[in-house]
Design goal:
This protein has 128 residues and is of the alpha/beta class. The chain has one domain: 3-Layer(aba) Sandwich (Rossmann fold), CATH 3.40.50. The protein is 45% helix and 20% strand. It has five helices and five strands; from the N terminus they run βαβαβαβαβα. A five-stranded parallel β-sheet has the order 2-1-3-4-5, sandwiched between helices. β4, α4 and β5 form a beta-alpha-beta unit. The protein is globular, with a radius of gyration of 13 Å.
């Protein structure tokens, strides 16, 4: 199977990563994992990341404070924000950040994979 691009997952929840990592690998993606926003930014600076999947609970700073920093490091990076809970306020805040996609975890892993695939296609980072 051809590799489809590099996906960086930044999520402090080990269970979320344990579900998502093998699923994306089985779908042909190279997957990098980080727990913290500082690790996320360092990885983006040092590797060719196609898509960032960032959970709103990532520690060290608020996710909405991290987005401008991440975009400053890699303006063309597609960012997918994930959350276990959905509120109108959170959704509005995410939309203002102009991220590629907002994924509520209860919607299922297949929907997230579709968003990852679409983000990679949009960025021109298709199969390697």
């Amino acid at each position: 199977m051809k590799k489809r691009g590099v996906v960086l997952i930044t999520d402090p929840d080990p269970k979320s990563k344990e579900r998502l990592y093998p699923f994306l690998q089985n779908e042909g993606y190279n997957v990098e994992l980080t727990d913290r926003i500082s690790e996320c930014i360092s990885t983006i600076q040092n590797k060719d990341i196609g898509v960032l999947v960032l959970d709103v609970e990532a520690p060290e700073m608020k996710w909405y404070e991290a987005i401008p920093i991440i975009k400053g490091v890699n303006p063309s990076l597609s960012i997918i924000i994930t959350s276990s809970q959905n509120t109108p306020e959170l959704e509005a805040q995410i939309r203002r950040q102009k991220v590629f996609y907002y994924h509520v975890k209860s919607f299922g892993i297949e929907e997230l994979e579709l968003a990852v695939r679409n983000a990679l296609e949009r960025s021109g980072n298709k199969e390697e």
